[in-house]
Amino acid sequence: MLKAKNRTVASPRRHRGAFIGVATVYAFYIIAAGSSAALDIDGTEGLITETVASRERLRDYDASKIYGAKRVQDRERGFAAPEGWRAGSYKIFPSLGTTVIFDDNIFGSNTDKVSDVRTELTPSVKFQSDLPRHVLDLSLGGKIVNYLDNTSQDYANFNARADGALHFDHAHTLSANILSEIDHEERGSISTPLTAAEPVQIFHNHAAVGITRDVGRLYGTLMATFERWDYADVRAFGGSMLDQDYRDTSQFSTALRFGYRFSPGFEFIGKVRALRALNRGDEFIDRDSYGYEAMAGLAFQTSPVLRWRLLAGIGLRDYDQSNIDDINTGIVEGQVEWLPTQYITFSGALSRQIIAADALDDAGRVETRLTARLDYEIWHDIVLNFGAAYFTADYIGITRRDTTITGSVGLEYYLNKNWLLSLGYEHTMRTSTESAYDMTRNRFRVGAKMSF
Q1: 81, 75, 24: which is closest to 379 by C-alpha?
Q2: CB-based burial of residue 284 (10 Å sphere; 0-12 exposed, 13-18 middle, 19+ buried)?
Q3: What is the domain range of residue 119?
Q4: Using 50, 70 and 90 to split pLDDT, how confident is the model at 123?
Q5: Element (H, E) at 67
Q6: Which one, 186, 226, 228, 334, has least CB within 10 Å?
């Protein structure tokens, strides 16, 4: 049973523990572009897709539950779990993180290699509902970045999110989420204009609604999504302003995700999606397009501690403007999770997807990502992790191709209920058919997070 990690919903007696997702993608830093490139490998648009019936079924249908297989990040650490503040039917979880990073190439360019020290403050507060049956969670967060010397690269991100689920009977869940955020695209990203002297501000809005039926062996989620990206003008070298309005994009999509469990630990899964992207570009380029995707595959367990999910299909982008190359390519999603011991978890993910919504070039790009991570619990309060990533971007209509390789190592120390300390190092190397995008980068990180 390989379902992605979703928020645990309430049975008549509400359990607050997080649902142990068999196929979780571990997120660590990859050089990527823009909000629209965010990877949603399970295709649920962040919606809560668990029903009361599906939770009850997992207790005796998933072998990993029966044998108690747990990932390192799911192991019991009650001594380090913030208790939150009770406020009626909610628990409030405030936190404040701070990270100091030495970066030997802050602009991600070998032609303009500058080192600096940056600090990141990440305040957040989550209002987690404790309703008898349904879910309505709210969260606020941000990231404030300051450089020691290159203060022109300072920026502040903010976000607000709401997630809700209405379990109107045993088998069905009606869910929705809304996200509004101010994000920034740093210099050196593969989609940032080379002439931009500062980070590019992006105003991003996302709204999704879906209905899930999950009871017995057959399940499915029908969903609809709207997203909007507004790019602010950015200062160029020399002081002039670069107009970024041609990048503004709206995207409407609808999707159906479905599956059939033909035995415990084995299921057929599929996804179909249609979208309409509106990007009017400038007086020369109109990137309005229709998109279609269809995928099918299997999720299965070769043992309670070795679990897989493999899908393959086809993706299309049909542009309204006749002189823009359409895209017709294979798309892939794959995940593996292996728990060789109770103290070690290995996970990997493979994806190939079309990225067109934030395209700087005529027809966007096709991205392939391969990531892996190993978590090792040295002691109950100390976790060591290793990460690796291989990422390619093939641009449609031009000869440009970027290849990025990243390796990282980190250490987390759960000091107590209120403090989490961390150390990390990351090395990134990018090569491109356009030498201006070549770069090597090293980052050293020290961090602390205070939670209540």
Answers
A1: 75
A2: exposed
A3: 35-451
A4: very high
A5: helix 63-67
A6: 226
CATH at 444: 2.40.160
Closest C-alpha among 174, 145, 192, 160 to residue 33: 192
pLDDT digits (tens, 9 = 90+) for 172-228: 999 999 999 999 999 988 888 888 999 999 999 999 999 999 988 899 999 999 999
Distance CA 219, CA 49 (A): 10
User: What's this model's pTM, rounded to 2 decimal places?
Assistant: 0.83
**C-beta of residue 204 within 8 angstroms of C-beta of residue 227:** yes
Could you count the other beta carbons within 10 Å of the beta carbon of residue 361? 15
How many whole angstroms separate alpha carbon 298 and alpha carbon 283?
46
- Does residue 79 fall inside a structural domain? yes
Does residue 13 sit within a domain? no
Domain count, the chain: 1
Task: Output Rg (C-alpha) for the chain, integer angstroms.
Answer: 22
If DSSP states are collapsed to H, E and C, what string results for 8-66?
A: CCCCCCCCCCCCCCCCCCCCCCCCCCCHHHCCCCCCCCCCCCCCHHHHHHHHHHCHHHH
- Amino acid, res. 210: G
Longest dimension (CA), the chain: 66
At residue 27, the pLDDT reads: 32
* Residue 220 lies inside a defined structural domain of this protein: yes
70 CA to centre of own chain: 22
Burial class (CB in 10 A: 0-12, 13-18, 19+), 262: exposed
Q: Is residue 26 part of a domain?
A: no
Record the tokens describing residue 265, joined without a space: 């630990």
